[in-house]
Write a structure and sequence with these properties.
The complex is a heterodimer of chains A (270) and B (353). With 270 residues, chain A is mostly helical. Chain A folds into two domains: 49 residues, no CATH class; 210 residues, Orthogonal Bundle (MetI-like fold). Chain A contains twelve helices and no strands. The longest helix of chain A is centred in the first third of the chain and has 42 residues. Chain B is mainly α and 353 residues long. Chain B has a domain of 247 residues: MetI-like (MetI-like fold), CATH 1.10.3720.10. Helix content of chain B is 71%, strand content 1%. Chain B is built from 17 helices and two strands. Chain B has a two-stranded antiparallel sheet. Chains A and B meet through α1, α3, α4, α5 and α6 of A and α1, α4, α6, α7 and α8 of B. Chain B: Keywords: Cell membrane, Membrane, Transmembrane, Transmembrane helix, Transport. Chain B: It is a multi-pass membrane protein. Chain B: Belongs to the binding-protein-dependent transport system permease family.
């Protein structure tokens, strides 16, 4: 077949557009403030300045990082477990129960999360959880459930029914079938969901904004935002903060990429 | 019904994926499935309904009796979802008939909040901006995503590498992206002076028109990768035989794209458009960090107006009424796009890997 010149040129141009801002962040974070004002913005500086990173680390970055990690773990682990168990129910229970169950969670896909912030704020206050990390986990779990259940139950449907029947013959309980058969067979989907929801939690901005107040409860995106306010003129330091806040999630992506991309296209690509 | 051997194949496929093999092996399995699909095309020229029928017959064996354990397994998720997602959804409607400043007592005030929402000019302004946002993002992102997705669907190794890199913007938080572009667009220390392109030297965030160009470009930068991946997956599922047949008939690449690729992407287009349209309804982080609704109120779209009204203006009742409008708009748009496509795409989001 002839080469696809138009597609190719377009593809490489898009790559350039994707990489340019990332490159800019990288080189700027390594410039001292005087170099930043004096040099060409798109060229890297010969003298690498790590002072920006030191400044970010000294500005409580470690605490924000810990907050983000805690919230992500506290959201993703219960979320994946609950979504897995509910998916088992949707796939294995009789239709009278599983169909409405599935519909309820599918409905959740259409709820714009933003629209519920006032009642969630009220709920969290009434639970005496305002300004705590736990307050960020609860709505994160609830709104992560629909998509997670969709992906996991679709994957679980591909487990051959004979395997369940074989375990029935062996006298296994539903609990055993769930953990010894369904769990290992759906592990790729569980990893997909886990990585994706960790990403969502990590980058979440709205819930931290409305449900927390004190600086020591900030997660990274919120910290980044207030950081930008404080260091408005010192762009290299702000860029260093952007780099540091993104590194953990890029590492996670590198580890779970195969599952993440495969699962997302499988879940939405039809 | 699927034959037992076919089921075995599927189990084996899962095992392979699970045991963490490399991409190439997974792809060889994939192409095996493709051959399988090709056969079905020859048989029935209509691959998708055939697949759907096969799926339903392969689904859970109809258990007659509801088992208690199944109910118990679903309870934690159901409980959580009911309390922290469904209850707020009902709550927002209830709160829209009240007055609440966010701290004190909540008082029932009937239609007062609604009266204010419907007569405020910011509501209609915000609504118009949301509609503009939805249309502009769709028009900008859909053609680009389809083109990039079709390009990435090629099996060349470098295209897999490109797909990895394309994904990067999806990893970054909106706050990080907004901050990055803010400095990138700085007239003196950003791209304009770096590339020596004077036309880039604009007051990007201070002009009511330019700021919209900036927002649309940034949002496209952030979300096109996601839709590109969806289309890439879909294009790879189109049976190769269709293209071979078209080539024999003498159709060129462009003709093939419009006669085979595009029509075959119909359901993917519905899914992608639904996500895009409903997503555009709720852009918040980017705009909040980048402009706070300004300059003036030129980017104060409805979700932002709702946040500012409730959490800055302390009018939670009015904010709730605005939220109800958002929910209705979201559901209406989702249903509208599906109706337009003539199929419930959310129910068809199955398999494909």
């Amino acid at each position: 077949m002839r080469r696809n010149w138009i597609g190719g040129a377009f593809g490489w141009l898009w790559l350039l557009l994707v990489l340019l801002p990332i490159y800019f962040v990288g080189i700027t974070s390594l410039k001292s403030i005087s170099t930043y004002f004096g040099s060409n913005p798109v060229l890297p500086s010969a003298a690498l300045a790590f002072e920006n990173f030191t400044a970010v680390l000294e500005a409580d970055f470690g605490m924000y990082l810990a907050n983000s990690v805690l919230v992500a773990l506290g959201t993703v682990i219960p979320l994946v477990l609950m979504a897995f168990m509910a998916s088992y129910s949707i796939v294995r229970a009789t239709g009278r129960f599983s169909r409405p169950l599935r519909s309820v969670f599918l409905l959740g896909l259409a709820i714009p999360v933003q629209a519920t912030i006032v009642p969630i704020y009220l709920l969290i206050i009434r639970l005496h959880m305002y300004d705590s990390l736990g307050a960020l986990m609860l709505p994160g779990i609830a709104f992560g459930l629909p998509l997670s259940i969709l992906i996991i139950s679709n994957s679980m449907r591909d487990v051959p029914g004979e395997l369940f029947e074989a375990m029935d013959i062996d006298g296994c309980s539903e609990w055993q079938k769930m953990w010894r058969l369904a769990f290992p067979m759906t592990r790729p989907a569980l990893v997909t969901v886990g990585v994706y929801q960790a990403l969502m939690s990590w980058n979440g901005f709205l819930f931290p904004l409305i449900l927390t107040q004190s600086p020591d409860k900030r997660t990274l995106p919120l910290a980044l935002w207030s950081f930008q306010g404080e260091y408005a003129t010192n762009v290299p330091v702000v860029m260093a903060a952007v780099v540091l806040s993104s590194i953990p999630i890029i590492v996670l992506y590198a580890l779970g990429r195969r599952y993440l991309v495969g699962g997302m296209t499988a879940g939405a690509g039809k | 019904m699927t034959s037992p051997s076919a089921r075995l194949d599927r189990g084996e496929h899962l095992d392979r994926v699970e045991s963490g093999e490399r991409l190439e092996r997974a792809e060889s399995v994939h192409s095996g499935e493709r051959a399988d699909a090709d056969e079905r095309v020859r048989d029935a020229a209509e691959p998708r309904p055939a697949r759907g029928a096969e799926r339903s017959s392969r689904g859970a064996p109809g258990r007659e009796r509801l088992q208690l354990s199944h109910v118990l397994f679903a309870l934690p998720a159901l409980g959580f979802f009911a309390i922290f997602a469904l209850l707020p959804l009902v709550g927002v409607l209830v709160l829209s008939f009240t007055s609440w400043n966010g701290i004190g007592a909540i008082t029932f005030t009937g239609l007062t909040s609604w009266g204010e929402v419907l007569t405020r000019s910011t509501t209609w302004h915000g609504l118009a901006l949301v509609v503009l946002m939805i249309m502009a993002t769709w028009v900008l992102q859909t053609p680009l995503s389809i083109l990039l997705g079709t390009f990435l669907a090629g099996r060349q190794r470098y295209r897999n590498v490109l797909a990895v890199l394309y994904f990067l913007p999806l990893l970054l938080s909106s706050a990080a992206i907004a901050i990055t572009f803010k400095s990138l667009l700085d007239p003196n220390f950003g791209l304009a002076s770096g590339l020596n392109m004077p036309f880039l030297k604009q007051n990007w965030l201070g002009d009511a028109t330019l700021v919209w160009i900036v927002l649309l470009v940034i949002i496209a930068w952030q979300f096109i990768p996601f839709h590109t991946l969806i289309y890439q997956g879909a294009v790879r599922q189109i049976p190769q035989t269709m293209y071979e047949a078209a080539q024999i008939d003498g159709a060129g690449r462009v003709r093939q794209f419009f006669s085979i690729t595009l029509p075959q992407l119909k359901y993917t287009l519905i899914t992608s458009s639904t996500l895009m349209v409903v997503g555009a309804l709720t852009y918040f982080d980017i705009i909040f960090v980048l402009t706070q609704g300004g300059p003036g109120s030129s980017t104060r779209i409805l979700p932002l107006d709702m946040y500012l009204t409730g959490f800055r203006g302390n009018e939670m009742g009015v904010a709730s009424a605005l939220a109800v409008i958002l929910v209705v708009l979201g559901l209406g748009l989702a249903l509208g796009v599906q109706r337009l496509g003539g199929k419930d795409a959310s129910a068809s989001q199955t398999e494909g890997a």
